[in-house]
Amino acid sequence: MIKGSRTSLFSRGSWLETRRIAEVLRKETIGGVLLLAAATVALLWANSPWAPAYEALRDWRIGPAAWHLDLSIGMWAADGLLAIFFFVAGLELKREFVAGDLRDPRRAAVPVAAAVGGVVVPALIYTLVNLDTGDGALRGWAIPTATDIAFALAVLAVVGRHLPAALRTFLLTLAVVDDLLAIAIIAVFYTAELSVLPLLGALVPLAVFGVLVQRRVRSWWLLLPLAAATWVLMHESGVHATVAGVLLAFTVPVVRSEKAGGPEAGRGLAEHFEHRFRPLSAGFAVPVFALLSAGVTLGGLGGLGASLTDPVAVGIMAGLIVGKMIGITTATWLVARFTRATLDEGLGWADVIGLAMLGGVGFTVSLLIGELAFGTGNPREEHVKVAVLTGSLIAALLASVVLRIRNRVYRRVHAAESLDADHDGIPDVYHHRLTPS
C-alpha cells in the first residue's frame, strides 16, 4: 500500500493467517464451553445443600509456608493457573504483531485503539457511578475493563459462524490486548506492597529463560524450573504473579532463525509453545479458575436484588454493558474518522457495534480484579461476582441479537467466498494474497 492510500478496516487478511486464527478460535470455543459449564457448576454448588463442601475446597490451603506459598486452592487458581492463561495471551499478541497480519501498524492500530477505548470508557463510567459511594468503592474501577477471550469467542462461534474472518481476528486481538492492558493495570494499581529484592531476583531466571528460548531450546525440564522460579519470585515481590506469564511469553522468539530456515521453514518457537499450552489454558486453567471463583451465594431474590443495587455492582454492569460498547465503537470510529481508513467493502457499523457489545463479556479477568480490589471475605466480593456474571450475560445476549442478524446477511456471501475452483485447498478469494506484490 502506497503512502497516502486508504486503509481498509477489517479487510480480509492472508489465507495462512486466516487458517491459523480459525484453529485458535476452535480451541478457544471449546474452552469457552468448558468455562460456562464450570461457572454453572460453581453457581449451583454454592447455592446447594453442599455449599460448605464448595467453600472448604476453595479455601483449603496447600503449599510451602517457608516460601509464603501456603495458598488456598482458590488463590492457586487465580495466581498460578491464570499465569498460564496470560502466557498464552502474551504469545498470541507477540506473534500477531511480529509475524501476523497486524505487523502492519495501520492494521494493528484498529484493535489496539478499540482495546484502549474499551478499557478507558468502562473505567470512567464505573468511577462516575461510584464517586460518592465511599467505603473504598473506587478501588473497583478496573473491574469492567477486561474482555474474556474464551467466553466471547464461544458466543461468537455459536451466533456468528458466517461472519467475515477479519471480524473474528479483530475480536481475538482486541481481547488479547485488552487482557494485557488489564494485567498492566493489576501490576501498577493492585500491588499493595512491593519488595524490590525478590522483584530483581525474578529478572535472573527470566533472563536465563529468555537466553535459552532465543537459542531455540525447547527442553521442558530446563525451561519449566526457570519459569516456576520467575513466578515464585514475582509472587514474593508483591506484584501479581500472573505478570510473570506475560513477561516469559515476551521473551519467546516468533520467527525461526535463518539457520533453521527462516520464516518460511514452519512455525517458530512462540507458535510451538502456543500450540502446546493453549489446550492447557483453555481446557483446564480457565475453567478451574471459573469453578473456584464463580461460586457466589445468591440468597434468593432478596439477596440477588441487594447485590445488584449496590452502586459497585451498578458501576460494573454499566461499564460492561454500556461502557464497552461505547468505548470500542467510538475508538474504532475515531480511527476511521481521523485517518485514511474506511470499513472494508460489504461491512457495516452494525458489525462493529455487535463485536463491541460482545467485548462486554468480562468474566475471567474481571473476577480476578474484583478479588484484588476488595479482597476475600469482603461483603462486596459477592456483589462483584453477581455483577460480573449478570453484566457479562446481558452483554452476551445483546451481542447475540445483533450478530445473529448480521450472520444471516453474511451467510449468503459465505458460499461464494468458499469457492475453490482449482481444488488446491485455498479459497479463490485468497489467491491474490499469496502472490508476491
Automatic annotation (TrEMBL):
Report what the protein is called.
Na(+)/H(+) antiporter NhaA
User: Residues of the signal sequence?
Assistant: none
Species source reads: Phytohabitans aurantiacus
Cited Pfam families? Na_H_antiport_1
Where does the UniProt annotation locate this protein?
A: Cell inner membrane; Cell membrane
Q: InterPro entries attached here? A: Na/H_antiporter_dom_sf (IPR023171), NhaA (IPR004670)
Query: What keywords tag this UniProt record?
Result: Antiport, Cell membrane, Ion transport, Membrane, Sodium, Sodium transport, Transmembrane, Transmembrane helix, Transport
Give the way it sits in the membrane. Answer: Multi-pass membrane protein
Task: Say where the protein is mainly found.
Answer: membrane
| Family membership | Belongs to the NhaA Na(+)/H(+) (TC 2.A.33) antiporter family.
Q: Which NCBIfam families match?
A: NhaA (TIGR00773)
User: What is the annotated role of this protein in its UniProt record?
Assistant: Na(+)/H(+) antiporter that extrudes sodium in exchange for external protons.
Transmembrane ranges, per UniProt, are: 29-46, 66-88, 108-129, 141-159, 171-190, 196-213, 284-306, 312-336, 348-374, 386-405
Which reaction(s) does the protein catalyse, per the Swiss-Prot or TrEMBL entry? Na(+)(in) + 2 H(+)(out) = Na(+)(out) + 2 H(+)(in)
